[in-house]
Amino acid sequence: MKTDHPIYLFLSACAEAFRVLTGGLSLAGEYRFCSLTIKGLERRLDGIFEPEGHPGPVYVVEFLGQPAPAAWYNLLTKIGLYGEQHPERDVVGVLALLREQDTPRYPSGVGDARSLVTGVALDRILPDWLAREPENPFVAVFAPLMIEDDAELQARAPALWRTVQTAPLAVRDVLSQVLEFWFFERFRGLTAKEIWSMLNLVTPIQETRAYQSIFAEGKIEGKIEGKTEGKTEGETAGKVGTLKRQLTRRFGALPAWGERRIDAAPITQLDAWLDGIFDAASLTDLIGPEADR
Question: How do the domains of the chain map onto residue ranges?
Fold first, then answer.
């Protein structure tokens, strides 16, 4: 499952997102969040929280969605590079793992209470979060990663969506995009309309906040090279066209089901596919297999 883009969106929301993802760490004082590339070795930090107007620690956050034996060394390297450029700052590293079983083995001693880096396994902490704070929208967005049974997730989808809509207005759209992204990744064989139906979106789609980042299925056909209808539709159409051209050059002519899936994808999913195109071994490796009908 693609994780980098939605995790970045999630962390950008506010301090509550940091508290949930790190298993309870709290930011004391004002912090500025960004993604940062360390000059010289071009090491990109997934997310970094820098204190604003106070001497609190800098938090470097890395998310690990797949096993990576060198993840601790990677995080330590990034902390060292950042600290080398900012020796006056205290830097703390947080490695958020999707599964505890993927915790890297080496170096020994890393991740304990006295280490400058700590690890947080979401499959261990999020079920507890869901039990203790079921109405917390920052917790609800991770349910598609934690609920293994598809039928159970589908049954809970409307309630999860309603919970996310209780988030403060300033971050509601971000959390909505993250939840939608997880559902599109989890149910790759479904169309956009089927996903929206699962979430029980009864409001006309043109009136929802999600419509600002998702182009209605079917309308994209015939408009990629013509005039677009609004800023969001134009941006989506451009990404659809770019993705199709790159996929055709890499894997050959696209099957009809692949084109339909791309046409129906939300803009966050298009971004993830564009980011991952050069790492994918095949079309199905990137966008998933053809749906069984």
Answer: 4-146, 208-287
